[in-house]
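stuck on this one:
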Amino acid sequence: MDDTGMGQTLRARCEFYRQVCDLPAVVDPPQLRRISMRAGRTWALVTPAPLGAAVRIRLDREGTEIGPILSDPRSHLWSFLVVPDLPADAAVYASLFRLDVKVVRNGGTIALPSPDDSCSVFRQWIEVPRGPFRPSGRVVVDAIEACTSGIRRPLRRLSHV
């Protein structure tokens, strides 16, 4: 997790997120020195950390470009930043919910790592964003399904929706 090119001040980090990564980052609230963004052009799929790690490995083995992933070590959650291409299908969201996967959709808040977080228990990058690329939400959900198909009721394959 080398984030040295992202800027070591709050302002520089926010500018990196906006200019290089095309993420609508803001410092909110300024007194807490927290960087966040509203979901819109980018959504997040929030998974328990063990599932997130399995999904990352699966995507890597398939040769799929992974894209940005962040971790919240306190809550043991990983967030995959994705293209918002999931269908408006209640069954898909219910299946994700049963797997403890949350979808942060339009208007939701996504907290991003700030320079103040680098040596703490707050947000950290698992896969650092290097540009505007985000994987398809459908591809990540398919990987979630593949990683959990023997554990719980499987999701419907999104590629056929």
Notes: The longest strand covers residues 43-48.
